[in-house]
Amino acid sequence: ACVLEGTVGGELTLLAGALGGAGYVDGPSSTRFTAPEFLAHDAAGNVYVSGGQTVRKISVSGAVTTLAGLHGPGNAGYLDEVGAAARFTDVQHLVVDRAGTVFVIDVTSGQFANLRAGSPGGAVTTIARSFGSYAGGLAIDASGTLWASHNVLSRGREYLLSRITPAGVVPSVPVSSKGWLAVSPDGTTAYLVPAEGDFSAVLRIDTATGTGSTISATAPPPTDSRSEVGGFCIDGTNQLWLSDRAYNRIWRIPTTGGAGTLAAGQPALTESYLGGWPSAYTAVDGPGASARFWSPRGLSCDDAAGR
């Protein structure tokens, strides 16, 4: 129920929300979140959080505001409007461009993935509707080009890496899976973790041809059927970062290949994956292996600040 900020070395501090205290409160302090799931940041260092029916903004000082959508029972829907008048059903992957426009995938109750954009003022517009179901990922490169990993709606197990332009979705290349997505700053290479969460099969994909290769032949241990990706991003030094919701760890994976290294957390299987809820939520700030998480989700890399 909180958002943490960490350095490349793994030092973690609380940015917004409360450790172990779920809720929904905006403001300059005493803010609350309930299961914040996807993260992105803008060029000024503001952080954007999506999950459920809203998109929220955390300023550099830690003040939280709701940019678009309305939280609470009965407020789910699909409406392009401004601020609290806009409606989302299930806001998933999120990225933001240099102008401060936020792009999200909104999954409707029929499981159709829709690309939607929110202006810095909170005006929401739909870019593309029903381009797939359970879209795997969304990323943006340094030029502002938007990329999506998704399936072909009419043929469920055919997957595409697509480029999204102001004119709509441009199918780019067929790929072997959909999944969590990161794209190099120049847009020539995409990195994909299959939706099944197989960390040993991180793929490097040429965005022009679709040619792919596995870059992490040795997975970050432990890897089993309970491992589950919670967030994925690429930093300015061409390192991939990945959070494992089940094992409560943050991994760093080199794009040049080889095994991932532990950046923060320790091996401790989230108790909910074993059929129950934990007796106490664990959230401890600190460097590297001394930090503790409970089901870490959204992850965003800030190139300029090195975090």
What would you note in describing this structure?
- This protein is mostly beta strands and 307 residues long.
- It is built from no helices and 22 strands.
- A hairpin with a 5-residue loop joins strand 3 and strand 4.
- The chain is globular and about 50 Å long.
- The two termini are 21 Å apart.
Tags for this entry?
4-stranded antiparallel β-sheet, 22 strands, 0% helix, 307 residues, single chain
**Main sheet record:** 4 strands, antiparallel
The helicity comes to under 10%
Using the CA coordinates, give the radius of gyration: 18 Å
Outline the low-pLDDT stretches: 272-277
Terminal Cα span: 21 Å
What is the N-to-C succession of helices and strands? EEEEEEEEEEEEEEEEEEEEEE
How many beta-strand elements? 22
Count of discrete alpha- or pi-helical segments spanning 4 or more residues? 0
Order of the strands making up the biggest sheet: 3-4-5-6
In short:
By secondary structure, the protein is mostly beta strands. About 0% of the residues lie in helices and about 40% in strands.
Topology, element by element:
Blueprint: E1 2-6, E2 12-17, E3 38-41, E4 47-51, E5 54-58, E6 64-69, E7 91-96, E8 102-107, E9 113-118, E10 124-132, E11 137-140, E12 146-152, E13 155-165, E14 168-175, E15 179-183, E16 189-194, E17 203-206, E18 212-214, E19 229-234, E20 239-244, E21 249-254, E22 261-265
Antiparallel strand pairs: 1-2, 3-4, 4-5, 5-6, 7-8, 8-9, 9-10, 11-12, 12-13, 13-14, 15-16, 16-17, 17-18, 19-20, 20-21, 21-22
